[in-house]
Amino acid sequence: MSAASVQADLRGRVALVTGGTGGMGRVITAELARAGAHVVTTSRDPRRGEVLRQQVATEVGADRVEVLTGDLSSRRDLHRLAAEFAERHKILHLLVNNAGAHYRHRWLTADGVEAHLAVNHLTAFSLTYLLRDQLFAGAPARVVNVVSATMSDVRPIPLPGRPRPVSLDLSAVTDVRQLNPAAGFAPFAAYARAKLLTTICGYAFADRWREKGVSVNAVHPGIVSTGIVDDITPTVLAPFRSLIHRRLLTPEQGASAALRLAVDPGLAATTGRYYVRETPARSPEISYDAATRAAAWRLSENWVTSPA
After folding, report:
1. Number of domains making up the chain
2. Is residue 6 part of a domain?
3. 2 in a domain, yes or no?
4. Among 124, 184, 212, 252, which residue's beta carbon has the most beta carbons within 10 A?
5. Among candidates 57, 214, 241, 229, which has minimal Cα distance to 145?
6. Contact 40, 295 (CB under 8 A)
7. Between the CA of residue 207 and those of 99, 255, 267, what are the distances in Å?
8. Residue 163, domain CATH
Protein backbone atom coordinates (compact mmCIF):
# COMPACT_ATOMS: atom_id res chain seq x y z
CA MET A 1 0.00 0.00 0.00
CA SER A 2 2.06 2.90 -1.30
CA ALA A 3 -0.59 5.57 -1.07
CA ALA A 4 -2.91 6.52 1.78
CA SER A 5 -5.86 4.53 0.50
CA VAL A 6 -7.73 1.51 1.78
CA GLN A 7 -8.43 -1.23 -0.74
CA ALA A 8 -10.93 -3.02 1.47
CA ASP A 9 -14.64 -3.05 2.22
CA LEU A 10 -15.02 -1.94 5.84
CA ARG A 11 -18.80 -1.57 5.90
CA GLY A 12 -20.14 -2.68 9.25
CA ARG A 13 -16.78 -2.18 10.93
CA VAL A 14 -16.17 0.16 13.85
CA ALA A 15 -12.80 1.88 14.22
CA LEU A 16 -11.33 4.18 16.84
CA VAL A 17 -8.54 6.56 15.81
CA THR A 18 -6.88 8.77 18.39
CA GLY A 19 -5.52 12.15 17.36
CA GLY A 20 -7.86 12.29 14.39
CA THR A 21 -7.58 16.04 13.88
CA GLY A 22 -3.80 15.92 13.32
CA GLY A 23 -2.04 15.41 10.00
CA MET A 24 -1.78 11.63 9.85
CA GLY A 25 -4.84 11.11 12.02
CA ARG A 26 -7.02 13.11 9.65
CA VAL A 27 -5.87 10.96 6.71
CA ILE A 28 -6.38 7.68 8.57
CA THR A 29 -9.84 8.75 9.71
CA ALA A 30 -10.89 9.82 6.22
CA GLU A 31 -9.57 6.70 4.48
CA LEU A 32 -11.20 4.30 6.91
CA ALA A 33 -14.49 6.20 6.54
CA ARG A 34 -14.11 6.19 2.76
CA ALA A 35 -13.82 2.39 2.91
CA GLY A 36 -17.13 2.22 4.77
CA ALA A 37 -16.09 2.03 8.43
CA HIS A 38 -17.82 3.95 11.17
CA VAL A 39 -14.89 5.88 12.64
CA VAL A 40 -14.81 7.25 16.16
CA THR A 41 -12.02 9.74 16.72
CA THR A 42 -10.82 11.89 19.59
CA SER A 43 -10.26 15.61 19.79
CA ARG A 44 -9.40 17.89 22.67
CA ASP A 45 -11.10 20.81 20.90
CA PRO A 46 -14.76 20.13 20.04
CA ARG A 47 -14.67 22.71 17.25
CA ARG A 48 -11.78 21.00 15.50
CA GLY A 49 -13.54 17.69 15.92
CA GLU A 50 -16.69 19.01 14.31
CA VAL A 51 -14.72 20.52 11.42
CA LEU A 52 -13.11 17.11 10.85
CA ARG A 53 -16.47 15.34 10.94
CA GLN A 54 -17.95 17.70 8.37
CA GLN A 55 -14.89 17.63 6.11
CA VAL A 56 -14.77 13.85 6.01
CA ALA A 57 -18.52 13.64 5.39
CA THR A 58 -18.09 15.94 2.40
CA GLU A 59 -15.06 14.02 1.08
CA VAL A 60 -16.56 10.54 1.33
CA GLY A 61 -20.19 11.40 0.72
CA ALA A 62 -21.41 9.93 4.01
CA ASP A 63 -21.51 10.96 7.67
CA ARG A 64 -19.39 8.18 9.14
CA VAL A 65 -17.25 10.01 11.71
CA GLU A 66 -18.12 10.37 15.37
CA VAL A 67 -16.05 12.58 17.65
CA LEU A 68 -15.37 12.07 21.35
CA THR A 69 -13.96 15.13 23.11
CA GLY A 70 -11.41 14.87 25.87
CA ASP A 71 -7.87 15.45 27.09
CA LEU A 72 -5.75 12.40 26.31
CA SER A 73 -3.18 13.41 28.93
CA SER A 74 -5.81 13.01 31.68
CA ARG A 75 -6.49 9.63 33.28
CA ARG A 76 -10.00 10.76 34.21
CA ASP A 77 -10.75 11.76 30.61
CA LEU A 78 -9.33 8.51 29.24
CA HIS A 79 -11.66 6.53 31.49
CA ARG A 80 -14.57 8.74 30.48
CA LEU A 81 -13.77 8.46 26.76
CA ALA A 82 -13.54 4.67 27.04
CA ALA A 83 -16.82 4.55 28.94
CA GLU A 84 -18.55 6.75 26.35
CA PHE A 85 -17.27 4.58 23.55
CA ALA A 86 -18.36 1.39 25.32
CA GLU A 87 -21.83 2.82 25.95
CA ARG A 88 -22.32 3.59 22.25
CA HIS A 89 -20.47 0.63 20.71
CA LYS A 90 -20.33 -2.92 22.00
CA ILE A 91 -17.84 -3.95 19.33
CA LEU A 92 -14.51 -2.49 18.22
CA HIS A 93 -12.82 -3.95 15.15
CA LEU A 94 -9.89 -1.57 14.78
CA LEU A 95 -8.03 0.67 17.21
CA VAL A 96 -5.35 2.97 15.78
CA ASN A 97 -3.39 4.59 18.60
CA ASN A 98 -2.11 7.47 16.50
CA ALA A 99 -2.05 10.37 18.98
CA GLY A 100 1.39 11.68 19.81
CA ALA A 101 3.17 14.85 20.85
CA HIS A 102 6.63 16.25 21.47
CA TYR A 103 7.22 19.10 23.90
CA ARG A 104 10.21 21.41 24.11
CA HIS A 105 10.09 21.58 27.90
CA ARG A 106 9.26 19.19 30.71
CA TRP A 107 5.84 19.55 32.27
CA LEU A 108 3.56 17.37 34.35
CA THR A 109 -0.05 16.51 33.67
CA ALA A 110 -2.78 16.96 36.27
CA ASP A 111 -2.02 13.37 37.32
CA GLY A 112 1.62 14.22 37.98
CA VAL A 113 2.89 12.26 34.96
CA GLU A 114 5.53 13.65 32.60
CA ALA A 115 3.64 14.79 29.50
CA HIS A 116 5.54 12.79 26.85
CA LEU A 117 4.82 9.62 28.80
CA ALA A 118 1.17 10.52 29.31
CA VAL A 119 0.32 11.33 25.69
CA ASN A 120 2.65 8.99 23.82
CA HIS A 121 2.31 5.89 25.98
CA LEU A 122 -0.37 5.94 28.64
CA THR A 123 -3.06 7.09 26.19
CA ALA A 124 -2.50 4.07 23.95
CA PHE A 125 -2.14 1.63 26.84
CA SER A 126 -5.22 2.93 28.63
CA LEU A 127 -7.60 2.84 25.68
CA THR A 128 -6.36 -0.58 24.56
CA TYR A 129 -6.73 -1.95 28.08
CA LEU A 130 -10.08 -0.32 28.86
CA LEU A 131 -11.68 -1.33 25.56
CA ARG A 132 -10.49 -4.94 25.64
CA ASP A 133 -14.04 -6.35 25.89
CA GLN A 134 -15.07 -4.41 22.78
CA LEU A 135 -11.96 -5.65 20.94
CA PHE A 136 -12.63 -9.25 21.98
CA ALA A 137 -16.22 -8.89 20.75
CA GLY A 138 -14.91 -7.52 17.44
CA ALA A 139 -12.47 -10.37 16.84
CA PRO A 140 -10.75 -10.70 14.53
CA ALA A 141 -9.75 -7.21 15.62
CA ARG A 142 -6.56 -5.21 15.22
CA VAL A 143 -4.66 -2.68 17.31
CA VAL A 144 -2.08 -0.52 15.54
CA ASN A 145 0.31 1.55 17.65
CA VAL A 146 1.99 4.42 15.81
CA VAL A 147 5.45 4.67 17.38
CA SER A 148 8.79 6.17 16.36
CA ALA A 149 12.20 4.93 15.29
CA THR A 150 13.65 7.57 17.62
CA MET A 151 13.53 4.85 20.28
CA SER A 152 16.37 3.18 18.36
CA ASP A 153 18.45 6.34 18.04
CA VAL A 154 17.97 9.42 20.21
CA ARG A 155 20.54 11.53 18.40
CA PRO A 156 18.49 14.54 17.15
CA ILE A 157 20.70 14.64 14.06
CA PRO A 158 21.51 11.02 13.08
CA LEU A 159 24.95 11.59 11.60
CA PRO A 160 27.02 8.59 10.47
CA GLY A 161 28.01 6.48 13.41
CA ARG A 162 26.56 4.00 15.83
CA PRO A 163 22.89 4.57 16.73
CA ARG A 164 22.13 5.35 20.36
CA PRO A 165 18.94 3.63 21.57
CA VAL A 166 17.01 5.39 24.31
CA SER A 167 17.83 4.21 27.82
CA LEU A 168 15.23 2.38 29.89
CA ASP A 169 15.81 0.89 33.34
CA LEU A 170 12.65 -0.05 35.22
CA SER A 171 14.34 -2.11 37.95
CA ALA A 172 13.81 0.53 40.66
CA VAL A 173 10.67 2.18 39.26
CA THR A 174 7.50 1.66 41.30
CA ASP A 175 5.25 4.32 39.75
CA VAL A 176 5.00 5.82 36.26
CA ARG A 177 5.38 9.26 37.81
CA GLN A 178 9.04 8.40 38.36
CA LEU A 179 9.70 8.03 34.64
CA ASN A 180 11.31 10.87 32.64
CA PRO A 181 12.41 12.71 35.80
CA ALA A 182 13.62 16.28 35.91
CA ALA A 183 17.22 15.26 36.53
CA GLY A 184 18.96 14.95 33.17
CA PHE A 185 15.70 15.51 31.30
CA ALA A 186 16.00 15.63 27.49
CA PRO A 187 12.74 16.15 25.54
CA PHE A 188 13.75 14.03 22.55
CA ALA A 189 14.76 11.11 24.76
CA ALA A 190 11.58 11.46 26.84
CA TYR A 191 9.51 11.22 23.66
CA ALA A 192 11.49 8.19 22.45
CA ARG A 193 11.20 6.45 25.83
CA ALA A 194 7.43 6.82 25.79
CA LYS A 195 7.23 5.35 22.29
CA LEU A 196 9.49 2.49 23.39
CA LEU A 197 7.15 1.73 26.30
CA THR A 198 4.18 1.64 23.93
CA THR A 199 6.07 -0.83 21.73
CA ILE A 200 7.00 -2.99 24.71
CA CYS A 201 3.48 -3.05 26.11
CA GLY A 202 2.17 -3.75 22.62
CA TYR A 203 4.24 -6.93 22.62
CA ALA A 204 2.76 -7.80 26.02
CA PHE A 205 -0.80 -7.23 24.74
CA ALA A 206 -0.03 -9.40 21.72
CA ASP A 207 1.20 -12.23 23.94
CA ARG A 208 -1.84 -12.05 26.18
CA TRP A 209 -4.40 -11.75 23.39
CA ARG A 210 -2.96 -14.13 20.82
CA GLU A 211 -5.79 -16.60 21.44
CA LYS A 212 -8.45 -13.88 21.66
CA GLY A 213 -8.29 -13.01 17.97
CA VAL A 214 -6.86 -9.54 18.57
CA SER A 215 -3.58 -8.61 16.88
CA VAL A 216 -1.37 -5.83 18.21
CA ASN A 217 1.42 -4.36 16.11
CA ALA A 218 3.56 -1.21 16.08
CA VAL A 219 4.70 0.90 13.16
CA HIS A 220 7.13 3.73 12.60
CA PRO A 221 5.47 5.56 9.68
CA GLY A 222 8.63 7.33 8.59
CA ILE A 223 9.58 10.93 9.26
CA VAL A 224 6.37 12.73 8.41
CA SER A 225 5.85 16.43 7.90
CA THR A 226 3.89 17.26 11.05
CA GLY A 227 4.12 19.73 13.90
CA ILE A 228 6.26 17.28 15.86
CA VAL A 229 9.09 17.87 13.40
CA ASP A 230 9.08 21.58 14.26
CA ASP A 231 9.34 20.75 17.95
CA ILE A 232 12.28 18.38 17.57
CA THR A 233 14.22 20.43 15.03
CA PRO A 234 17.34 21.89 16.71
CA THR A 235 17.28 25.67 17.07
CA VAL A 236 20.28 26.07 14.76
CA LEU A 237 18.25 24.48 11.96
CA ALA A 238 15.11 26.56 12.53
CA PRO A 239 15.74 28.80 9.48
CA PHE A 240 15.65 25.69 7.30
CA ARG A 241 12.34 24.27 8.55
CA SER A 242 10.47 24.82 5.31
CA LEU A 243 13.22 23.04 3.38
CA ILE A 244 13.23 20.21 5.91
CA HIS A 245 9.47 19.73 5.60
CA ARG A 246 9.69 19.55 1.82
CA ARG A 247 12.06 16.60 2.14
CA LEU A 248 9.82 14.66 4.54
CA LEU A 249 6.98 12.25 3.90
CA THR A 250 3.53 13.76 3.51
CA PRO A 251 0.83 12.81 6.06
CA GLU A 252 -0.73 10.69 3.30
CA GLN A 253 2.51 8.77 2.79
CA GLY A 254 2.98 8.30 6.52
CA ALA A 255 -0.60 7.17 7.03
CA SER A 256 -0.24 4.46 4.40
CA ALA A 257 2.04 2.42 6.68
CA ALA A 258 -0.47 2.47 9.55
CA LEU A 259 -3.38 1.75 7.21
CA ARG A 260 -1.59 -1.27 5.80
CA LEU A 261 -1.25 -2.82 9.26
CA ALA A 262 -4.87 -1.93 9.94
CA VAL A 263 -6.54 -3.52 6.93
CA ASP A 264 -4.17 -5.61 4.77
CA PRO A 265 -5.68 -9.13 4.61
CA GLY A 266 -2.17 -10.55 4.31
CA LEU A 267 -1.37 -9.30 7.83
CA ALA A 268 -4.48 -10.71 9.50
CA ALA A 269 -2.48 -13.31 11.44
CA THR A 270 0.47 -11.02 12.21
CA THR A 271 0.82 -9.88 15.81
CA GLY A 272 3.52 -8.72 18.19
CA ARG A 273 5.61 -7.17 15.44
CA TYR A 274 7.29 -3.84 14.81
CA TYR A 275 7.50 -2.29 11.34
CA VAL A 276 9.50 0.57 9.92
CA ARG A 277 7.02 1.66 7.31
CA GLU A 278 6.25 -1.58 5.46
CA THR A 279 9.34 -3.52 6.54
CA PRO A 280 9.47 -5.79 9.62
CA ALA A 281 12.18 -4.52 11.94
CA ARG A 282 13.69 -5.14 15.34
CA SER A 283 13.00 -2.67 18.10
CA PRO A 284 15.68 -1.87 20.73
CA GLU A 285 17.02 -4.98 22.46
CA ILE A 286 15.61 -3.93 25.83
CA SER A 287 12.11 -4.37 24.39
CA TYR A 288 12.68 -8.14 24.20
CA ASP A 289 13.81 -8.45 27.82
CA ALA A 290 11.21 -10.42 29.77
CA ALA A 291 11.76 -8.59 33.07
CA THR A 292 11.49 -5.18 31.42
CA ARG A 293 8.36 -6.21 29.56
CA ALA A 294 6.74 -7.45 32.79
CA ALA A 295 7.71 -4.27 34.65
CA ALA A 296 6.40 -2.01 31.87
CA TRP A 297 3.09 -3.84 31.87
CA ARG A 298 2.77 -3.76 35.66
CA LEU A 299 3.53 -0.03 35.90
CA SER A 300 1.11 0.86 33.10
CA GLU A 301 -1.68 -1.39 34.36
CA ASN A 302 -1.31 -0.07 37.91
CA TRP A 303 -1.65 3.48 36.61
CA VAL A 304 -4.75 2.89 34.52
CA THR A 305 -6.52 0.85 37.22
CA SER A 306 -5.64 3.08 40.18
CA PRO A 307 -8.38 5.32 41.61
CA ALA A 308 -8.40 8.75 40.00
Report:
1. 1
2. no
3. no
4. 124
5. 214
6. no
7. 23, 26, 17
8. 3.40.50.720
Phi then psi dihedrals of residue 214, to 5 deg: -120, 120
140 cis-preceded (ω within 30 degrees of 0):
yes
Q: What is the pLDDT along the chain (308 residues), one digit of tens a residue?
A: 445 567 789 999 999 999 999 889 999 999 999 999 999 999 999 999 999 999 999 999 999 999 999 999 999 999 999 999 999 999 999 999 999 999 999 999 999 999 999 999 999 999 999 999 999 999 999 999 999 999 999 887 666 778 889 999 999 999 999 999 999 999 999 999 999 999 999 999 999 999 999 999 999 998 754 555 445 555 544 544 454 445 567 888 889 999 999 999 999 999 999 999 999 999 999 999 999 999 999 999 999 999 76
Would residue 8 count as lying in a domain? Answer: no
Exposure string for 223-234, b = 16+ CB within 10 A, e = fewer: bbbbebeeebbe
- Do the Cβ atoms of 293 and 203 come closer than 8 Å? yes
Q: Which structural domain range is residue 72 located in? A: 14-305
* Residue 265 within a domain: yes
